[in-house]
Amino acid sequence: MYKRILDHLNTAILLFDHELILTFVNTTGEILLADSANHLIGQSAEELFRSSDPALLINLKQSLAMSEPLVDRGLTLNRMTHNVTTSFSATPLLVNEAVSEILVELQQVDNHLRISKEEQLLTQQNTARLLIRGLAHEIKNPLGGLRGAAQLLDLELHDPELKEYTQIIIDESDRLQGLMDKMLGPNRLPNKKALNIHEVLERVRQLIQAESSGSLTIKNDYDPSIPEIFADKDQLIQAILNIARNAVQAMEGKGNIIFKTRIHRQMNIGRKRYRLAVKCDIIDNGPGVDVNMMSQIFYPMITGRAEGTGLGLSIAQALINQHNGLVECNSEPGNTVFSIFLPMETVNEQA
To answer: In the predicted model, what is the mean pLDDT of residues 62-67?
Structure first.
């Protein structure tokens, strides 16, 4: 009963014995330490915090020696892939006035900052999308009239040279109409069905490989244990294809791309918490995203290429948003990662 309660807490709970050997860790602790309970339990505090902020181990030993609770903040916890900032709390558990165990609480501080950043990002994108959609609607109405007038004029003209001009007006009206449709974003709700996320990624890989000149290497790093998810296959293919094409264009068709999948537990997207989520990374070794554009790359009409429309990433984000997911980007020269988070809905949950 108590274990079930602890496993549903947002705080990592670690229990050490009087020799500072880990005897219990909850689910949030497994996520924070990026390891399973089976592997973590039995390790000493020195092993767990060896490469992390020295204050973690010092505080733990001090709490044990003084038999008093201790709180510290802003401590860096080392993980396999990156570091996280945590707040630390140690509470000695006494038996006959002697410390028998120490209860440690670790809360990821930068996770709260990430949630706040996500909320701000989603709000800004939704506002920008509403403005663009309103503008697109206003343009489409006179555009239809312009095209109709050009067609009527074309029927009245008999000079082939003059007809060329009306055809140009019609063709350009059609081009602008297509652009407006893209700016309006997805025009239908997702038709969700059970699918394997790797089928989607492999389809995108085949398309990108077929479009490349042979100077592009695409690898995969899949977690085969990921179960089927409920999603719109066509929309996911379009979203991931837009992101992958963006990577290819940034690298000018030469370089390496990696498709990577992993499961994330107790995932926050905005203010909603999901028990399981799939994380799909599209990783490239291109020049990276200009730091001045990082906060704007998902906005419509924002692009760093003269020939680009700036709609690919915006449409990708809109399609993923329709699946209650989110797209994030972290970039530096030689390593750009677009991460797609999709909440998992299992077959049993849909039934």
So the answer is: 90
Contact 7, 37 (CB under 8 A): no
Please name the residue ranges forming H helices in 8-159: 27-33, 37-40, 45-48, 54-66, 109-156
| Amino acid in the structure at residue 47 | E
The dihedral through the CA atoms of 233, 235, 239, 241 has a sign that is: positive
Residue 44 carries which DSSP code? B
Fold for the domain defined by 193-350: Heat Shock Protein 90 (3.30.565)
CA-to-CA distance for 222 and 74, rounded, in angstroms? 34
CATH annotation of 2-109: 3.30.450.20
pLDDT tens figures, 314-350 = 788 888 888 888 888 888 899 999 999 999 864 444 4
| CA gap 102, 14 in Å, rounded | 8
Q: What pTM, to 2 d.p., does this model score? A: 0.57
Residue 116 to residue 274: CA distance in whole angstroms: 17
Q: Are strands 255-269 and 326-332 parallel, antiparallel or unpaired?
A: unpaired
Cα-based distances in Å from 247 to 53, 210, 241? 36, 15, 10
Element at 234 (helix H, strand E): helix 233-250
Report the C-alpha gap between 74 and 82 in whole angstroms.
16
- The CA angle 332-333-339, to the nearest 5 degrees, is 45
Residue 276: strand pairing partners: 265
CA dihedral (128, 131, 133, 134) in degrees, to 10, reads 170
Q: Which two tokens stand for residue 63?
A: 């709490």
Question: What is the rounded CA–CA span in Å between residue 104 and residue 29?
Answer: 10
